[in-house]
């Protein structure tokens, strides 16, 4: 995200956001619930493809313009490819990323605004919506990514504008308590985008030993360990090339390999992972754009197929998803790019059976459905899409 865009978004929503946070807390006095989702731990999120899926449900996070907006729901019929709106799942301000607990009964969202924080909602099985359980606001500037620990005890949050990461404990009743925070320091060579730290992603390693924060502003991936007392003091697991602007990362489920997408250099870096020390070492980098493409573009999301054979990265500007085949050593080979049939693909997700890809096109306010060939990894059009206001996250639950 561009710094100017972030600041504009905060300014435009500040009055409404402050009003709405107050409303959230009034609602919380009446009764509540909990639930969360983040890129689930790699081994769970990226395990073997699940057979015979009939229907899937998705939570769609995004930016809001006022009351009555928040996380929307979507269902996909796997036989017909039809997308159906489930309406508003939970009302909240700028839920730009969403995470769920293991059984999808509690949903956690960031609230990406100037005096931001996180909010917890519990599933109401009577109407399949989520009821406010807890909200912690005014603790960060522009939180943009959230994840749950493999043991379910903690929530980690990356705060883009305040340049820090936070650790919250999860109580049995879904209440939240801030346990620890670590401020990143430094800057990068890109004066307009890297004038300060900008953590953009945070999650646990597949074995749960380490927490990694990908910082776009300082070209580093910071490594932490977690105890009941909070984060250890962080240290760089790797420093990438100056001006890379690393954004998101995904681990391979069966190899000691991670893939990080670099927003500013439009590349994917293939990193070897040392499970003993947590160190990351670059072993390959590969571009996400067709060399013939010369206009502005910047990468966004990176995902791996359920069978671990293909890696996918979205290009905002080119408005494509690049597809890469995974070799035996974890290195990548470019396969092809396919249009997202919308503008600014901020996020996307592969269905658990690997049959489809749902793309959140932020600027065209659409969710598009692409078909996926499990043998070649290639994507193709289904002709299916649905309107969704400024979507920024797609999470299956």
Question: Can you give a write-up of this model?
Answer:
The chain is mostly beta strands. The protein is built from 2 helices and 30 strands. It has a 4-stranded antiparallel beta sheet, with no helix packed on it. Strands 4-5-6-7 form a 4-stranded antiparallel beta sheet. A 4-stranded antiparallel beta sheet has the order 8-9-10-11, with no helix packed on it. A hairpin with a 4-residue loop joins β6 and β7. The protein is globular, with a radius of gyration of 19 Å.
Proportion of strand residues: over 45%
Distance between the termini: 26 Å
Mean pLDDT: 89
**Quaternary class:** single chain
Structural class: mainly beta
Q: Note the overall shape.
A: globular
Specify the helix fraction band. under 10%
Contiguous uncertain segments of 5+ residues:
1-47
Helical segment tally?
2
């Amino acid at each position: 995200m561009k710094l100017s865009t972030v600041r504009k978004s905060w300014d435009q929503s500040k009055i409404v956001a402050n009003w709405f946070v107050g409303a959230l807390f009034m609602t919380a006095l009446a009764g509540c619930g909990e639930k969360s989702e983040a890129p689930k731990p790699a081994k769970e999120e990226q395990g073997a493809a699940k057979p015979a899926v009939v229907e899937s449900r998705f939570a769609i996070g995004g930016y809001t313009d006022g009351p009555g907006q928040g996380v929307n729901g979507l269902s996909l019929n796997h036989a017909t490819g039809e997308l159906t709106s489930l309406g508003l799942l939970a009302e909240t301000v700028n839920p730009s990323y969403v995470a769920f607990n293991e059984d999808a009964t509690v949903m956690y969202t960031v609230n990406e605004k100037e005096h931001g924080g996180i909010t917890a909602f519990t599933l109401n099985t009577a109407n399949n919506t989520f009821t406010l359980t807890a909200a912690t606001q005014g603790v960060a500037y522009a939180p943009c990514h959230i994840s749950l620990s493999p043991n379910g005890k903690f929530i980690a949050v990356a705060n883009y504008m305040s340049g820090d990461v936070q650790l919250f404990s999860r109580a049995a009743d879904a209440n939240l308590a801030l346990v620890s925070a670590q401020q990143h320091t430094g800057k990068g060579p890109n004066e307009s985008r890297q004038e300060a730290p900008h953590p953009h992603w945070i999650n646990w390693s597949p074995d749960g030993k380490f927490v990694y924060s990908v910082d776009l502003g300082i070209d580093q991936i910071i490594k932490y360990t977690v105890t009941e007392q909070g984060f250890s003091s962080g240290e760089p697991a790797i420093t990438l090339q100056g001006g890379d602007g690393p954004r998101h990362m995904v681990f391979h489920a069966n190899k000691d390999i991670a893939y990080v997408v670099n927003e500013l250099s439009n590349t994917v870096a293939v990193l070897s992972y040392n499970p003993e020390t947590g160190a990351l070492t670059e072993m390959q980098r590969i571009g996400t754009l067709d060399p013939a493409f010369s206009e502005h573009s910047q990468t966004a999301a990176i995902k791996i197929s359920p069978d671990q054979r293909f890696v996918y990265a979205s290009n905002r500007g080119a408005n494509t998803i690049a597809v890469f085949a995974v070799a035996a050593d974890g290195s990548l080979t470019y396969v092809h790019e396919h249009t997202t049939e919308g503008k600014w693909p901020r996020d996307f997700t592969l269905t658990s059976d690997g049959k489809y890809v749902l793309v959140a096109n932020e600027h065209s306010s659409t969710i598009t459905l692409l078909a996926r060939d499990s043998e070649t990894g290639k994507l193709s059009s289904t002709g299916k899409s649905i309107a969704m206001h400024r979507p920024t996250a797609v999470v299956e639950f």
